[in-house]
Amino acid sequence: MAKKSKTAFVCNECGADYSKWAGQCGACGAWNSLSEVRLGPAHTDSRAANFTAAQSGYAGAAGGASKVQKLSEIDLSELPRIATNASELDRVLGGGLVPGSVVLIGGHPGAGKSTILLQTLCELSRSQPALYITGEESLQQVAMRAKRLGLPADHLQMLSETNVEQICLTAGEVKPRVMVVDSIQVMHMAEVQSAPGSVAQVRESAAYLTRFAKQTGTALILVGHVTKDGSLAGPKVLEHIIDCSIMLEGTHDSRFRTLRAHKNRFGAVNELGVFAMTEQGLKEVSNPSAIFLQRADEIAAGSVVTTIWEGTRPLLVELQALVDDSSLGNPRRVAVGLDQNRLNMLLAVLHRHGGVLVGDQDVFINVVGGVKVMETSADLTLLMAVVSSFRNRPLDRDMMIFGEVGLAGEIRPVPSGQERLREAAKHGFRKAIVPAANRLKTDIEGMEVIPVKTLSEALNALDMS
């Protein structure tokens, strides 16, 4: 007798599943987000059989029945990483690809996700077996892009397929060390009765591919789409399944792309890699600070340079402020690249502890180059840029400023202050205003460091009180 098909209700927002429909998801609180998913009668058994078949004949696979081990008996020897031959990508990954790891790379359409992965696999295929699986483009389209970019295409193995079970069967025969799936949103499993890209399909496909990677020691890279707000499309559980989540960011009017790690089990989080889009594809930028410091010959009022910390290295960026008389009853506060709520708070601190009132002024803040400042080290820089624009008094071209500003007007230290100052000195800056706790232990030749404890001291140092 044939078994009845099973039915489940899955939340489109968070991926939680229920046995019956409900108006509100109990996991994330979203209303009217549950959709019905019909599962095949032999869903579990056939999937296990197909996966077992995919593992057969895979030399050196870590498959087989798992066994219980004592914690002290586990081998602690570190797995050798697979270098991608792209130092900026290796930096974001934490030193290279780890065998058996799953990496998810997301980004807006046209950001260059497929380009950077095709470049990487073409180089990797020279030394080890690599497999590129495309579900969105034909093999001819990928070959045309590789030819246009001048990539070595003699050794890279290609597959055009969207069925996950068939992909794993083919990979079990090819035995690649690195495998790319482009993209996870178009993959599907025959037993899951829903359209590709749905919550159930993305979740089941990602779980199936992840299990394959873990048991065979294959480094797996998944390409993911993003939503309108810039977050990864699909269930939230997708980010929990994978080991590393990185985002390729950049605007269409800029040739630069930033690769940032949001989750990494094998390296630093918030590590940043910088690339430039050229006719030959994405090229690494070894000195990102030089890009964001392409300033005009004559520095205008409101322009100040600061040093932010991205992952494991300092990065010099220019912060610009424009303060102008407001014609509105409610003056505007606009921050691009910074938290607008923090801007409002810092302007209140500037009035209370610095004696500078800009409540009747429009204040516009911009971080040059499209960089997003996530830390508090730019607080003092922001306020000095606002005062410089408000007083219409440009600061010295060779001056940089950093420091966190507290609600009491105190200047708090920031991490890695010594490294920030050395990076600034390397790029020709000769004067710096920093928190007193970040003063240099050993002097840097040719650099004057002015330590300050309060906001008033910083304004006096610039003669803008």
TrEMBL record:
Superkingdom per UniProt: Bacteria
Pfam entry (one): ChlI
Binding residues annotated for ATP, in chain numbering: 107-114
Keywords, sorted A to Z: ATP-binding, DNA damage, DNA repair, DNA-binding, Hydrolase, Metal-binding, Nucleotide-binding, Stress response, Zinc, Zinc-finger
Domain remarks: The middle region has homology to RecA with ATPase motifs including the RadA KNRFG motif, while the C-terminus is homologous to Lon protease.
Keyword Hydrolase set for record: yes
Protein family per UniProt: Belongs to the RecA family. RadA subfamily.
Positions of the UniProt region annotated as Lon-protease-like: 362-465
Motif (RadA KNRFG motif) on chain: 263-267
Keyword Repeat listed: no
Species the sequence originates in: Microbulbifer celer
Span of domain RecA family profile: 78-226
Cited function: DNA-dependent ATPase involved in processing of recombination intermediates, plays a role in repairing DNA breaks. Stimulates the branch migration of RecA-mediated strand transfer reactions, allowing the 3' invading strand to extend heteroduplex DNA faster. Binds ssDNA in the presence of ADP but not other nucleotides, has ATPase activity that is stimulated by ssDNA and various branched DNA structures, but inhibited by SSB. Does not have RecA's homology-searching function.
Protein name (Swiss-Prot/TrEMBL): DNA repair protein RadA
Coiled-coil boundaries: none
Gene3D superfamilies linked to this entry: 3.30.230.10, P-loop containing nucleotide triphosphate hydrolases (3.40.50.300)
